[in-house]
Amino acid sequence: MSDTIFALSSGALPSGIAVVRLSGPAVRFVVETSAGKLPKPRQATLSALRAGDGRVIDQGLLLFFPGPASFTGEDVAEFHLHGGRAVVAAFLGFLGDLPGLRLAEAGEFTRRAFENGRIDLTEAEGLGDLIAAETEAQRRQALRLAGGAFRERAEDWRRRLIDLRAHIEADLDFSDEDDVPDDLSHEVGVGIANLRKEMERELSAGQRGERVRDGLEVVVLGPPNAGKSSLVNALAEREVAIVTDIPGTTRDLLEVRLDLGGYAVLLVDTAGLREGGDVIEAEGIRRGRARATAADLILWLDENGNAPPQDVLALGVPVMRLRTKADLAGISEGVKAVSVRDRTSVDRLLDLLTREVASRLGGESPLVSRARQRDCLSRAVAALRNAEGKALPAEVVADNLRQAGDALGRLTGRIDIEEVLGSIFSTFCIGK
Ligand SMILES: Nc1nc2c(c(=O)[nH]1)N(C=O)[C@@H](CNc1ccc(C(=O)N[C@@H](CCC(=O)O)C(=O)O)cc1)CN2
Ligand SMILES: Nc1nc2c(ncn2[C@@H]2O[C@H](COP(=O)(O)OP(=O)(O)OP(=O)(O)O)[C@@H](O)[C@H]2O)c(=O)[nH]1
C-alpha cells in the first residue's frame, strides 16, 4: 500500500490562509482523527482541527475528495488553516507523527495523478509550467497544455496510426489478389503523409513554444564603455549591472528577465568586445560571444553608431543596431539612437523590442514547448518518413508506424518513461 503524503501546498508563511494537502489511503483516518468525522465530499466544512492528543490546533475549513474522482485519483483532503507559522508547524507535526504518513516530494501529488491515469505526461508538464509561468504568454500556453490539448492531439494521432496499421494488415491478407491492395496502399500512403505533415506543423510551431516557455534570448554586445550595462539597467528599470566609466567593467555574463508585452525575455549583458585586457576580461568576452551564438537577437551597441564587426555578423543571429549616449551627439541617420539620460528614448526602444518579440512569438499557443516533447515528436516524424518510401514491403511500413506510435506513447507517458519521470517532477514545487 502506498504512503499517504502531505505538504503545505500554499506559499510562504505567514499568510492569510495556509492549505495543507494530503493524498493516500490514510486520508479518511486523518480527517476523522482531526475533525471528528468525515465531512460531505467536496464541501468546505468548518471544523475544530485537533492533534492526535485531542488539543485544538485551529478552527479551519476542511475539504474531502474521495478517490478515484480526485486530483490524484486517491483519497485527498485539504485543510485550510490560518497561515501562522506555529499553526502550520503544529499541524504538520501532528501529521508527521501519524503512521504511514510522510512529507510529499516535489511534484509528488501530480506524479500520483499521472501514475493513476488522471492526467498524461504532457498535462503534468503543463501543470508544472503553469506554476512556473511568469508572463501572460507562458500562462496561456501552460494552461492549454494542462487542459489536455496536446494529450487529445496525440491520442488522435495514435488512433489514426492504429487505423493505418489495421489497413495494412488487411492489405497483407489480400496480398494474393492483385486489385484490392493498390487502393488500400494509396489510402494508407495519404494517411501517413497527412499525419506526418500535421506533426511537422506542430514541431515548427514548437520553436515558438520553447521560446515562450524559456524566454527569448537577447544578448547585448558592443565595444567596452558603449553603455551596455547602463542600457540593460534602464531596460530592466533597476540597477542590476555595475556601471562605471572604466572600460572593461563587465566581465561575466549578467542575465535579466524582462516581461515584454506578456512575453518572457532574457536580456544578457556581456563584457565589451576588445583585444587586450586581462585574462578575466578575455574570458568574459569569450563567454559573451559564445552566448551570442545561441541568441535569438543581438543588440549591437556603439556610441558612434558603427556596425558590428564581421565575426559578429557571421554568427547568423539577427542584429538590432543602436547608437548609445544619444544625448552627447547630434542625430545620426539610419541607426536607432538611445540615451539612458532620456527616458523617452528608452521607452521607445522598449516598445520596439516588445513589437519585435510579439511578432516572433505571437499567435495561438503551440503545443510543443520543451525539448522532451520535441524529441518524441521528431522521432514520430522520422518513423513516418521511413514509412513513406515508395514500394516498401507492408511489414516495413507497419513496423515504422509502430515506432511512430511508440514515440507518441513516450510523449504522453503511456510507455517506457520511468527514467524521465524523476527529472520532470523534481522541478515542481512541494505540494503540487
Ligand atoms: N483548493 C484547491 N484549489 C485548486 C486545486 C486544488 O487541488 N485545491 N487544484 C489542483 O491542482 C487546481 C484545480 N484543479 C483540480 C483538478 C481536478 C480536481 C478533481 O478533484 N477532479 C476530479 C473531479 C472533477 C469534478 O468534480 O468535476 C476528477 O477529475 O475526477 C480538483 C482540482 C487549482 N485550484
Ligand atoms: N552621457 C551618457 N553617458 C552614458 C550613457 N550610457 C552610458 N553612459 C556612461 O558610459 C560609461 C560606460 O557605461 P557602461 O554602461 O558601464 O558601459 P559598458 O558598455 O557596459 O562598459 P563595459 O562593461 O566596459 O563593456 C559610464 O560612465 C556611463 O555612465 C548615456 O546614454 N549618456
How would you sum up this structure, described in words?
The protein is of the alpha/beta class. The protein has three domains: 4-117, Gyrase A, domain 2; 122-205 and 370-425, tRNA modification GTPase MnmE domain 2 (Four Helix Bundle (Hemerythrin (Met), subunit A), Up-down Bundle); 215-361, Rossmann fold. 47% of the residues lie in helices and 17% in strands. It has 14 helices and twelve strands. α10 (310-313) links the parallel β10 and β11 (319-323). It binds the ligand Nc1nc2c(c(=O)[nH]1)N(C=O)[C@@H](CNc1ccc(C(=O)N[C@@H](CCC(=O)O)C(=O)O)cc1)CN2 and guanosine-5'-triphosphate. Residues 222, 224-230, 243-245, 247-250, 271-272, 324-325, 327-328, 339-341 line the site of guanosine-5'-triphosphate. (6S)-5-formyl-5,6,7,8-tetrahydrofolate binds at residues 21, 78, 118, 432. Belongs to the TRAFAC class TrmE-Era-EngA-EngB-Septin-like GTPase superfamily. TrmE GTPase family. Keywords: Cytoplasm, GTP-binding, Hydrolase, Magnesium, Metal-binding, Nucleotide-binding, Potassium, tRNA processing. Pfam families: MMR_HSR1, MnmE_helical, TrmE_N.
